[in-house]
Structures are given as structure tokens and as C-alpha cells.
Amino acid sequence: DARREDLPDLRGDEPDPASHHREGDVRALSLLERIGSHPERTAVVDARGRTTYGGLLASAEAIATALLAGRASLDGQRVAILAAPGAPFVAALLGAWRAGGVAVPLALPHPPAEHAHVLDDAGVTLALADAENAGRLAPVAAEREVRLLPLEAEGRPAATRRTGDLPRAGEAALILYTSGTTGKPKGAVHAHGSLTAQVDSLSAAWEWSADDALPNVLPLHHTHGLVNVTLCALANDARVEMLSGFDAEGCWRRLEEGGLSLFMAVPTVYAKLAAAWEAADAAERARRSDACRRLRLMVSGSAALPAPLFGRWEELSGHRLLERYGMTEIGMALGNPLRGERVPGTVGAPMPSVEVALVDESGGACPDGAPGELRVKGPTLFREYHGRPEETAKAFADGWFLTGDVAAREEGRFRILGRASSDILKTGGYKVSALEIEDVLRLHPAVTDAAVVGLPDEEWGERVAAAVVTGGASLSLDSLRTFARERLAPYKLPTRLLVLEDLPRNAMGKVTKAAVRTLFGAPSAGR
User: Fold this and answer.
1) What is the pTM of this model?
2) 505 DSSP 8-state letter
């Protein structure tokens, strides 16, 4: 085992990270209990303006009352949320929790087929949608007799009565969907307690305070944007500014305006910001560099940060990006230090309250420098894959979560070497199942078989590449993407295509993904 206390102290004089989790301590306040202790402060800034903590909680209370419709509690009913990043989304999340429901955020860019899968898989009975997205969700909800409630952008009155008791730590709070090796996305269920533990861990590691403010350029159906950015800000009475998607020039303009202290993004975002910096004139470059230097911390995650980008970003911003490692199922498990050396290509040491272990193929502990499967234990872990007891059981061994990632420990720091499964890709911060994409591509009338692999890419982490067998029929990348766009999220669409007479297979008839990667000109290891 590599418990955090057994590793060299790389964090200087930071607060004791375990203080929230020791046995015998007073129970840590839940997120719902700690959000809004200063109702006059600004909580969320979006295209509509500023929303105070008091206004946010009043909206959440009214949403909870509407969801309850006279009942005392939703008793764990699943509540889907489809809304643009902003105060209405946050109020919907808090309102679902306040009513005793389990929030299920839906991805804005996903087509109806993927929304339908989530509604079906999670057993959603209620849904909340803003005005811009209610029309898209309405047909899917109606087919399943899901009650759809609109989110009003402004003027929602406070509830006339207080709703029921706050949920307990062990009760389910959130289902976030993440793709696995079985192909279709799986719902990772987090309890109120595991979300609180994640926020406590990050608050201690990165010294969050009420003085912090940061923009959010990340989607809210993903751990990075939802927990690391939004919930951490709210739990610390800080301010989160929801930008309408990511636009490099718009993001630079907001950074230049100042009044911010943190920035968190995926490597793809940093690559696009760096490209926009390069394209600017000398005066604009200077303003942008100064804007970065006013921030106290810049964090990168959700995909591997290429070493050249790490170095380039330091040159233009003065920041050595803090790279960390996490998953939907576990929250953040490893992180470089807030103070201390950050080594390119490494993801630091275990985060507060998290234990990690490296295990070789025989189940033994790995010595320093030796690769092994990364396993994680701690209060931040998810509870289960919704409705999938067998897959949940396979994901754990003696209380340890099996990440499926291969890593090595070097002088107390961890380096992620790649996926144990070649069927998981990471592109633009998203974890994508090759098997799911292959199933969709095989539905194309010209495709008889398909193999999807990830090709290394400095901007996206990996690009989705498809090798298909057509039996002689012609097929272009554009036509294949057009077909798949109706069934897959945009980041799952292939960006490279090879049409083959047959796929490379081993003696047992199984497609060899390493050989497929070499056909695209990538190294056979590919990770």
C-alpha cells in the first residue's frame, strides 16, 4: 500500500488534510448545510447576471417544492437535469437534493438517443430543463412518462414552506455517466458523503477560501466541472463564473478583466489558449501573460498533460500547471503539490483522505519504478454502478477500486502509463468506450465490421480513429461522421478512417488493437 502518510511530504506547510475524516471528529457539514452561509455573497455569475447565495437557495427551495408536489420526500427518485451551465442548473441540482432526489445531469451536446439511454438506465421519473433545452428533452421524456418541469431563468419565488429533512451522508446524491469496457455508458452513483469527502479533500489540498473566484469552461455532467470547480466553489462561499462553452478569445478576455484567482481546464483547453496567445500581437501577449500571473493556481486534468505543453504554458503564463489524476468513480486520487516541485508527466502523490496501491499481475505490491495497476480506497469513492451489481463487484477487490490504469511510483510521485484496457480512450478530457463507438459504426449499411482505437495527440490526448470493413463499398469519413452524429456525442465521432479488406486478428479470431494502431502509423503500444 502507498498511504499518503507513508510518502514524502511534498506539500510544505499546508493544512492537515485528514482533519475532516478522522474518527471521533464532529461530523463534517454536508454540502447542503454549508452552501449559503453568507447569503449576500455572489455565488454564480452567468449570462443572466449575478446570483447571490440567498437567491440560489431560494430557487433551489422552490424547485424542491415543485418536485415534491406535496410529498415529504422523493425518497431517492432520479431527477434528470438538462440545462446550460449557470445558476438555473445549480439551483436544479440543489433543489433535487433538497427534495430527497438523486440528480442525473445530462450532457448538453448529446443526441436524443444518448439522453434516452440515461433516462432508461437510471430509471428517471422526473426531469428539469431550462427553456433552451426543454423542447429537445420533451419527446424523450414523454415517451417514458417522465414528468418534465421547466426551469425559470428569473423570478422564481421562494418556497412558502421548508421542505423535509436534509439527506444523510449515505444516501445517493448523484449519478454521473461514464463509459466502460462494456460499451454503453454506466452510471456511477455517488452518495452525499462521498461528494462531501471529495470537496473536503480538494479544499484542503488547494486551500480554497471564500476569497476565491474562477471561471468554468467545463461541462457540468462531468466530475471536473461539476465537483472540482462548481461544488468546491459553492462549499467555500467562493464565486464561480459560468462561461457559455469554451471560446479561446472569450476566455482570454475574461482572464484579462481580472478578479479571478483560480483556473481549471483540460489539456485541450490549454492548447487552444496557447495557440490563441501565439496568434496575438506583442502587446496582447503581454496582457494575457499578466492576467495569468495574477491567478494563484492553474490546474490541468481529465487527460494526460503533454510535457511540451507543460513547458510552453510555463513560458507564456509563469505557471507550472498543477496536474492531477482522477476518475468519475473516485473523485481526485492523485495530485501535484500546491507548494513544492511539480514534475512534468507526473500526477503527484495521493490526495487528502485517499489511499492508493500499485499491484502487479500476481497481486503483489510493486516496488518503486515498477509498473502496476493503480488501485484506490477512501471516502471519496462512488457507491456502485447503478443497476449493475456484477460490474460493481468486478470493479472492487478487498475494498480497493480497480482503476484499470497502469502507473509507476518514482520518488514518491506517480506517473500514469496508460490504460490496462485498450478499449478505453481519453479525448479532450472525456473517457470514451471504443466498443460503444464500434457498435454504432456497424449499424452503417456499408460497414460490416469496425475497430476503434485512440491515436496519441498533443491537443486532444487521443483522437478517435476507426478502421472499418466495407466489403468493397466506398465510404468517406464525412459520411460516416454524419451517420454516427445522430447516435453519438460529438467527441466520440471518429476523426480518422481506414477502409480495410479485413481487420487484423489473433489466432483466436480477436481483433488486435495494437495492430490496428500501427496501420494508422501510431506505435503499437499506443498509450
Assistant:
1) 0.82
2) B
